[in-house]
Structures are given as structure tokens and as C-alpha cells.
Design a protein that fits this description.
The complex is a heterodimer of chains A (about 625) and B (about 350).
Chain A (H helix, E strand, L loop, with lengths): L2 H10 L4 E2 L2 E9 L4 H15 L2 E7 L14 E9 L12 E4 L2 H7 L8 E5 L5 H6 L6 H4 L6 E5 L1 H9 L6 H5 L2 H12 L5 H10 L4 H21 L6 E2 L8 E7 H16 L3 E5 L6 H8 L7 E4 L3 H13 L3 E6 L1 H6 L1 H10 L3 E7 L16 H6 L8 E3 L6 H16 L2 E7 H5 L1 E5 L45 E3 L14 H16 L17 E8 L3 H13 L4 E6 L1 E3 L5 H5 L2 E8 L4 H10 L4 E4 L8 H11 L1
Helix pairs in contact in A: 2-8, 6-10, 8-10, 9-10, 11-12, 11-17, 20-23
Chain B lengths: L10 H5 L26 H20 L6 E5 L7 H4 L3 E4 L5 H11 L4 E7 H7 L1 H10 L3 E7 L34 H7 L4 E6 L3 H13 L4 E6 L11 H4 L1 H7 E4 L6 E2 L5 E6 L2 E6 H4 L16 H7 L8 E8 L5 H14 L6 H5 L4 E4 L1
Parallel strand pairs in B: 1-2, 1-3, 3-4, 4-6, 5-6, 7-11
Antiparallel strand pairs in B: 5-11, 8-9, 9-10
Helix pairs in contact in B: 2-8, 4-13, 5-6
Classes of the chains: A alpha/beta (about 625), B alpha/beta (about 350).
């Protein structure tokens, strides 16, 4: 940033107002670059040292008709001087680039919140497209808010004029102008973001320059007209010492699996078919061939998992990733992997269903499918990361379990984790756990389905090993020899062995930890997956008011941690918030005969803290 | 080491460079499993020829037996891997090319055969077949075509002739059959051939050539199902008529057939016609087969020669060279792995903007 600007503002104002955290939502047309704007603010806030959590929310259509309600794309971020864990329940600032963005998001804004809007877009046709008959600025419906009207489009065009770029490119810089406005309001340094702009548009210097000019112009405009009486500061958050970066769940998932490959000393093979919101993992992994990663964009979902099973048969770490309908298509092949007893990992970045459902929205409604959804008695191990950065560690965990126990493992992420971002205290590679891989080579002791007495894992004997030529397949196997067998007793035996093998994984995972009162209390809130942040914050709030509530967060869903049943007994009531109709609650009821109470939200949106807080109060 | 998809610690990678100590025989490729096809099934002949040619193939290519893998889907033909004493993988219906593609992508040194049928390969697995072929994955795909569903006990298949009466089409099918050779050519397979279970010598020759080809191989093998579709190929393959009703394609040679090779195929415009050479006695203008032609047009035209008007072509329709999928894939990875600083996990974790909290 220009030092001069900061000095001149400082001269005029002796005091800034300080606040603990701010929740901003950027909203505009899906072509307005709101995701980029939000990401850039996020990155900037991270570098300043705030804790951050973000929630992008965009339509499934790449570009719905401009200016319409379905075309609105939003990005909410919460930046704070304390530990936050969620993107915040309701924004206090709404940046609305057009009337449709205002209309869609106004209902979420807190009373008295700030609205920054692009007044150039509040003309006849755009109002009409958003369903306004009159200008909402004139009807009084915004009277409860602090409205800041800025002719963002025109000011942007003027600002970027010196670069001589075309009208269309010039107009596209308006998101940077809006970002500049907000940077002034929250007293943010421009330099880190200018660096990002230059990296992003490195090959087009005139576009980079135009974006920089727009950003600077927005900042200067806000400063000149003092769009708010006092600039607002959010100081650094006291985080544990170390080196941090911003990371989304999908990024953490991708690099976590690369780390697993390094830690196992085996190449990673990723077979996948593009699908929202899992495609970013394919994009990220295909960029990292220098780690020996082989990526295969398959012809369909079935081919993707088929190739992964083939790669695992060959001794690689076979990984596939998908979402929604894709996981349904993979069911038969997951069954094959169970029968073959080969280690593979299946990432499911859950989205709203059924069928095509809500491709860009989050949900947790594939849990029962993951645990039970295949033909026959077909148990698989199911694990779920709890935060974006936790995806990294759980990815390593997925292959550790898969390889040690010779089982397929389902990794249940979701759209909220996938696209949400948070600061990540980066681990050092030497602190990460090794994943021992041993191929069987000894002919004398080899039987295709002989087992490790502790884990019941069979031997991994890969093609190319002399003397171990053998055949495996999806037909029922005879115990030990692996020959095809239709024997009734053998079938029951094998079904029980495959179940026991998954059950024994419980001996190899950490016990569940109670956050709150380990000795017990009135209410135990049980969550899994991406609800972690909202549950943790809600429980914290109620506890501060004296409520006897504790929580546990399950990262292992099949098998459950071995102490879970015993922990449940210590609490009067069990509350299970889930973004589904009560799937974990059903499993807990079936397994432990507890009267689990559900809190269910199926709106494609994550829980708000207050929704869980309210329910805890009700149950207490 | 995990930077390289062809890892050096794999047993097969080391063994691949060592010549086999003693010459192998058919018995070395025969597994201890009881073969469970119906007595009289054409599959027996294919299995026997395969077991017979494998020792030569392994010797010629210096491949140890442990580097040979047979993979399949579901169906009668797909039981094949159980009977070969190699590594074997019996998968799920139609998906064999997908398992094989994944395996080749990480273990390019293995020789991978895929055994499929007309239902497995052209119906439920049609998509995978197309994509394996167009990618030119180095797989030897053998499609046993018996024009019927055998394992499910006698329904029509995608290659059953129109009007065929079966359990699921009691008054005859109303579906146009697929021509497997045309499908393979359309997918730009680099090796496309056809043979028949009863001509053991020709079958062996084609299997040997399939093994020698680098890239996607597609071999259609006419295979008699004596239970549900007996005699499906008798009209042209029966001994007494075979010479007159089939033509063996030979690269660089005129397309001639019949007793004493007295008949040939000639093109009039784009239209083929049969010429009686005993009358014309002049071979000019006869179609000369070129399996290496850059374009697949001639092969496609030959694939459309059908009885009763024309002899049924057997042999190699097309054999061209193109880089293999796994070769190109491995190359990209090798180049990336070879770059300075490649594979550093800490720099991957610490990518982008970072900040320090003291």
C-alpha cells in the first residue's frame, strides 16, 4: 500500500474503532468475481494475523442470466482477533454489486448492518430483473441499515482508463474497487493483495495494472469521502506459535494424499471423473506430478474407481474422489474392493441430494450410504475430517488404515469443508506418521487369503512377484486359499471375517475425547464432519452461561471409537446436530440403544451457531 | 522412490530384466483350477491356444511369467483368468478395461491381457472398451464373440443377428447388431484383428501378433456357444465351406480367397465386388490389403464384408504405431520428478503466502 495514504488518514483521525471480529458478505452476479474478491480479502486478513473462516456460496450455473436472482454468487468471511471456527451466523456488512445481490442477501444481514452497494446498477432494468418495482433505496426498506451508495462501475472505468484496456475488461475490475473500499474501512494493507494480483495476471500486465488501479482507487475513494466515520480495526489473533497459511478443505485433501504417498513410499494414483464439488482435488493433484502422482481423468465414475482398484492391485496407493451421484455409481466397485481386500480410498465430497440435487451446496446425507449402501454384507471403514485443515491429517489417516487393514476407506468430506478456508498451522514433514507398506514376497508362506492374526488383513502380493501368481475376483473366496467357493459355511465365515476385520480397526484409532466435562453431565452434543466449528462455538457459549453441556466430535464413523458406548452412558441426553434427516442419530440408536435427539438442517447451508445454541438450551 | 511410478523395489521390475532360466511350457501356464465351461465350448480351444503360445511370447519378449496378468469382467469368457497360471483378476461386469488401465498406468512393465465377451465388452462395458482403445493403453483385449448371453442362460446379445429368437426375444430381436471390428476401428485402436476358435493355427498366429503389438490390441474371436447358440458361425466357418466363405487378410497382398485362391475382391468406386479370377485371370485392380495404412478407411470397408454376398474377413485389419497412453503418462511424471526440488513435501505444504505467529 502507499504509505502516504496511511499517513494522511492517520493525521486526520486520531482514533480508530476496534472490534473483535467482523463478518462480511460479498455478493454480486456470478460473473462479478465475488469469489475472487472474498478470497483476496481472506488471504489479506490471514497475512495480517487474524483468525479466519470462510463460506463461499455460489450457484450451480456457471453464468445464470446476468442480474437475476439465481445468478447471485456470495462469499462470506469472518475475520477475528480470537479463535472463531465458523464463518459466522449473520453478516454485519453486505457488499452488493447489484439489486439481485441485495435482494437475495438482505434477509441475512443483522439489524443496523452496513450495506455497500454499487449505485450504478440500481437502474430500471436491473431493478426489474431482481424483482424490484421501485428502487429499494427509496422505499424505506433499507432504513434499518447503514447504506453506503457508491457509483462503483463508473469510478472503476475512470480509474483504469490510463491502461487503455477495453471497456469489457475495464468493467470487470469493479470487484477490485469494491475490495479497495472495504480495505480502507477495515484498515488493511494493500501490498499483499497487489502481489496476489500481479501473480494472478502475470501474463497480462495491463490487466494486472488495471486491477491494481481499481483496488487503489476504491481505497482512495473511501478515504477521501470517509465512507464511514471511523475506520475499524480487528487486531491480530493470538494463535499458537508457528508458520501458517490459508487452506481450503479440497486443497488440504489433495496435499494430504500426496503426503500419504510420500509417507508410504508408494506412488499415488488418482482416478476421477470431474464432478462438483470434488473436481478441485483432481485439478490440484494433476499439478503435482513431481511427487510421482499419476492422475487419470476417467471416462466415467465407474471407470475412475475401476482404475483405482487396478492400480492398488499393482501396488500403488489407489485413490478416487467424487460426490453425490458419483458415489452411487461407484457402489458396485466398492463392493469389489471389499471382496478383493485391497486398500483403496474413496473421497466423497458430499453435496445436497438426492439425484443431481444441489451440486454446489453442502449436506451430510451420504453417511448411511457410506456405511451400508452396497449389495450384500459389505462393511467399509468410514472416516470424516472436521475442518478444512483437518482434511490433510485425515487423508494420511485414510491410507494408514487402508494399507494396514487391507480395506477400502471412505473419506467423507462435504461442500462446506471443501470450499471453506481457515488458517493452518503447517506441520513439518518429519513430524508426520510413516505408513509402513509391506508386499509379501515369500512363496513358502503365501496364501492369497491368509491373514494377519491381529488385524485379519490379508497379504498384499503384487504382480511381478515370482512364485506368487494367484487369481482374485468378486466371486466368494474360500478362506485362506482364495479359490472360488460356493460352500455355505465358508460364505458365512467370510462374511463374518470381513465384518470383524473392519470392527478391529477400532483397536487402531484414538478413543473419542469429551470436550467439556469428561465425567458426564446433562447434555452431550455429538457431531461429525463439518459441523465441528458451529457445535464447538455453541457448546462454548452455553457452557459460559453455566450449562452442563459437553461435546464429542466423531472422525471415525465405521467403526466407532471403542469407548463411545461407555462415554454415551455418562450423559443424561444426547443431541446430534446433522445436515441430514438424522443418519448418525440412527446409527447411534441402533448400536448403543440411546435416545439420541436430532437437530436436523437440510438447506444446503451449514449450521449457524445460534441454531445449535438454541437447541441445546431447549434440550437442557 | 514414490516419485517414480515404475518403482525399483517392486519384485517384477527387477525380475523383468533377467532371462527366464529354463524354457517354459504349456503346463507352466495351466492353473490348478478345474475348468468349468460347458463341455464342447469354444472357450476350451482359446484357452489351450493361449497356454500354448504364452511360453513363446514370454521368451520372445523376455517377460517372466510373474509379469503377465489376465484381467476380466463377468461372463463365461471372463472366467478365463482363473485357468491361467499367471496373476489374474476377475472383476465386475464390463469394467475389465478400467482395472487394466489403472494397473498399466502404475506398472507399465506388466503384460496385461483383457478377456471379455460380446455382452461384457459391447453392452455393459461398451464405454470402457471405447476409451481404452482410443487412449491406446497397451492392453491385449480379446473379445470372445458368441453372439449370445451364455452365463445368464440364453438371451440375445448386442452382436446377435436381427430377428434372432432367444429366451428374451421369443419372436425375434428387433435390434441392429454391433460390428465389433467397426467399433474398434472407430475408436482408433492401433491393432484390430479377427480370428475363430476352430482355426487353432490362425488363432495362435493372431495371439502371437497381439502380444507383439505395443498399444491397444483388439481381437474379436468368433467363439461357438454349443449350448445356447450352437453353430453360429457354421455358415462360413465349417470346414467344407471355409475356403469359399472366408478370406484371410494378409498385409501387402491382394485380397483373394476360395479354392485355389481363384476369387478376389475389387473396388468399384467405394463399392466392393467379388471377381472370379479363373475367368478374368488378371489380378490388376484387386484390392491390396494394407494393415499399416494411416487411415482406417480400408479396414472399415473390409470390416463390412459380410456373408452371404462376401467372404467373412479374418486376420489383421489394422496394425499401426502410436505412442501408448501409459508411456506418455509415465513420461510426464518422469520429467516432473526429474526437475530440481521435485517432491519436497515441506515446500508443498508451505506453498503460497505464509505468515509466522511468534
Amino acid at each position: 500500500m502507499s504509505l502516504k495514504t496511511e499517513e494522511s488518514s492517520a493525521e486526520r483521525r486520531s482514533a480508530y474503532s476496534d472490534t473483535e471480529n467482523v463478518i462480511i458478505r460479498f455478493a454480486g452476479d456470478s460473473g462479478d468475481g465475488m469469489q475472487i474478491t472474498g478470497s483476496m480479502f481472506t488471504q489479506n486478513a490471514a497475512l495480517v494475523g487474524n483468525d479466519i473462516s470462510t463460506l463461499p456460496d455460489f450457484p450451480a450455473e456457471i453464468r445464470a442470466p446476468a442480474g437475476t436472482l439465481p445468478g447471485v454468487s456470495g462469499f462470506q468471511l469472518n475475520f477475528s482477533s480470537r479463535d472463531i471456527k465458523t464463518p459466522g451466523d449473520a453478516p454485519e456488512v453486505l457488499v452488493a454489486m447489484n439489486p439481485a445481490a441485495l435482494k437475495v442477501n438482505l434477509c441475512d444481514l443483522i439489524p443496523g448492518g452496513m450495506i455497500v452497494l454499487n449505485s450504478d446498477m440500481f437502474g430500471g432494468n436491473n431493478l426489474k430483473k431482481a424483482g424490484y418495482t421501485t428502487d429499494p433505496r427509496e422505499t424505506g426498506e433499507l432504513s434499518g441499515f447503514q447504506v453506503i451508495s457508491v457509483p462503483i462501475s463508473n469510478l472503476t472505468l475512470q480509474a483504469v482508463k490510463p491502461t487503455g484496456i477495453g471497456q469489457k475488461d475495464a468493467a470487470r475490475c469493479k470487484n477490485m474497487f469494491a475490495l479497495g473500499l472495504m480495505f480502507w474501512v477495515y484498515d488493511r494493507p494493500l501490498d499483499p493483495t497487489i502481489r496476489v494480483i500481479q501473480q494472478k495476471f502475470g501474463k497480462k500486465p495491463e490487466i494486472a495494472e488495471a486491477n491494481r488501479l481499481a483496488l487503489q482507487a476504491g481505497y482512495n475513494y473511501a478515504d477521501t469521502v470517509e465512507i464511514v466515520p471511523n475506520q475499524i480495526r480487528v487486531s491480530k489473533c493470538v494463535l499458537p506459535k508457528g508458520v501458517y497459511r490459508m487452506i481450503t478443505g479440497n486443497e488440504a485433501t489433495a496435499i494430504g494424499f500426496i503426503a500419504a504417498s510420500k509417507l508410504a513410499g508408494r506412488p499415488l494414483f488418482y482416478g476421477s471423473y470431474p464432478i462438483t464439488p470434488a473436481s478441485d482435488i483432481l485439478h490440484e493433484l494433476s499439478r503435482h506430478k513431481s511427487f510421482g502422482v499419476v492422475t487419470f481423468q476417467a471416462e466415467d465414475e465407474i471407470a475412475a474407481i475401476g482404475s483405482v482398484i487396478g492400480a492398488s492391485f499393482g501396488g500403488a496407493l489407489g485413490l478416487t474422489g467424487t460426490s453425490g451421484p458419483g458415489i452411487a455409481l461407484k457402489s458396485e466397485a466398492i463392493g469389489l474392493a471389499v471382496m478383493l481386500e485391497l486398500p483403496i480410498v474413496i473421497i466423497n465430497v458430499q453435496r445436497g441430494g438426492p439425484s443431481t440435487g444441489l451440486p454446489t451446496k453442502t449436506e451430510q446425507a451420504d453417511l448411511l450410504q457410506a456405511v451400508c449402501g452396497r449389495n450384500g454384507e459389505c462393511p467399509v471403514c468410514v472416516i470424516a475430517p472436521s475442518t478444512p485443515s483437518d482434511c490433510f491429517h485425515m487423508a494420511i489417516e485414510a491410507f494408514r488404515i487402508a494399507v494396514r487393514h487391507m480395506v477400502p476407506v471412505i473419506f467423507l468430506s462435504d461442500g462446506y469443508l471443501a470450499n471453506g478456508a481457515e488458517p493452518w498451522l503447517m506441520p513439518r514433514s518429519e513430524d508426520l506418521p510413516r505408513i509402513p507398506v509391506k508386499f509379501h514376497t515369500d512363496k513358502a508362506t503365501f496364501q492369497p487369503y491368509a491373514r494377519d492374526p491381529e488385524t485379519l488383513a490379508r497379504m498384499w502380493a503384487i504382480p511381478g512377484t515370482p512364485g506368487l501368481e494367484h487369481r482374485i475376483g468378486g466371486l466368494e473366496k474360500e478362506d485362506i486359499t482364495g479359490n472360488v467357493s460356493y460352500d455355505p459355511e465358508n460364505h458365512e465365515k467370510m462374511v463374518r471375517i470381513r465384518a470383524e476385520k473392519v470392527d478391529r480397526i477400532a483397536n487402531d484409532i484414538p478413543p473419542v475425547e469429551v470436550m467439556g466435562d469428561p465425567e458426564g453431565g446433562d447434555v452431550l452434543v455429538i457431531g461429525w464432519g463439518s459441523t465441528y466449528g458451529a457445535i464447538d462455538q455453541a457448546v462454548g457459549r452455553v457452557r459460559r452461561r453455566g450449562g452442563k453441556v459437553s461435546s464429542i466430535h466423531l472422525k471415525y464413523l465405521n467403526p466407532f471409537p471403542s469407548n463411545l458406548g461407555e462415554v454415551l452412558q455418562r450423559f443424561e441426553k444426547i443431541l446430534v446436530p446433522e445436515m441430514n434427516m438424522g443418519q448418525l442419530a440412527m446409527l447411534l440408536r441402533a448400536r448403543y440403544l440411546v435416545d439420541a435427539i436430532g437437530l436436523n438442517k437440510i438447506q444446503g447451508q451449514p449450521f449457524k451457531i445460534k441454531e445449535i445454541e438454541r437447541k441445546i438450551e431447549e434440550v437442557l | 522412490m514414490n516419485g517414480d511410478p515404475i518403482s525399483t523395489n517392486e519384485p517384477g521390475a527387477a525380475a523383468a530384466v533377467l532371462p527366464a532360466t529354463t524354457p517354459m511350457t504349456k503346463a507352466d501356464f495351466t492353473s490348478d483350477q478345474i475348468v468349468r465351461w460347458c463341455p464342447g465350448c469354444g472357450d476350451y480351444s482359446i484357452l489351450a491356444q493361449m497356454q500354448k503360445v504364452m511360453p513363446n511370447i514370454c521368451a520372445r519378449h523376455n517377460i517372466p511369467r510373474e509379469n503377465v496378468v489376465f484381467m476380466s469382467g463377468i461372463g463365461c469368457s471372463s472366467r478365463f483368468p482363473y485357468y491361467m497360471n499367471t496373476y489374474g483378476f476377475h472383476g465386475i461386469h464390463g469394467r475389465a478395461p478400467t482395472f487394466a488401465t489403472g494397473l498399466k498406468a502404475v506398472r507399465p512393465e506388466l503384460q496385461v491381457w483383457v478377456v471379455t465377451g460380446d455382452g461384457d465388452g459391447l453392452s455393459i462395458g461398451g464405454n470402457h472398451l471405447l476409451h481404452a482403445l482410443r487412449r491406446n493403453v497397451d492392453l491385449k483385449i480379446l473379445l470372445f464373440n458368441n453372439r449370445i448371453y451364455g452365463l445368464t442362460k440364453g438371451q440375445y446379445s448386442p452382436t446377435s443377428e436381427i430377428g434372432k429368437k432367444t429366451k428374451s426375444s421369443p419372436i425375434g430381436t428387433v435390434e441392429m447388431p454391433i460390428n465389433p471390428i467397426c467399433i474398434a476401428l472407430a475408436a482408433e485402436a492401433t491393432f484390430v484383428a479377427r480370428t475363430i476358435d476352430t482355426d487353432t493355427k490362425h488363432l495362435q498366429e493372431i495371439l502371437e501378433r497381439a502380444a507383439d503389438h505395443k498399444g491397444s490390441v483388439f481381437v474379436e474371436i468368433f467363439q461357438n456357444c454349443n449350448i445356447f447358440n450352437d453353430g453360429a458361425f457354421e455358415s462360413f466357418a465349417a470346414k467344407p465351406v471355409r475356403e469359399e466363405k472366408t478370406v484371410i487378410l494378409e498385409h501387402g497382398k491382394p485380397v483373394v480367397f476360395g479354392k485355389d485362391r481363384k476369387k478376389g475382391i475389387r473396388l468399384v468406386g467405394w463399392k466392393p465386388e467379388v471377381v472370379d479370377l479363373s475367368v478374368a485371370s488378371d489380378t490388376t485392380g484387386l484390392l491390396v490389403h494394407d494393415e499399416k495404412a494411416e487411415s482406417g478407411t480400408l479396414a472399415y470397408l473390409l470390416a463390412h464384408l459380410m456373408e452371404p454376398e462376401f467372404p467373412v474377413p479374418l486376420g489383421v485389419f489394422r496394425a499401426i504405431e502410436r505412442p501408448t497412453y501409459e508411456g506418455l503418462l509415465t513420461q510426464q511424471v518422469k520429467e516432473a520428478v526429474g526437475k530440481p526440488g521435485a517432491g519436497n513435501l515441506d515446500s508443498l505444504i508451505r506453498a503460497g503466502d505464509t505468515w509466522t505467529v511468534d
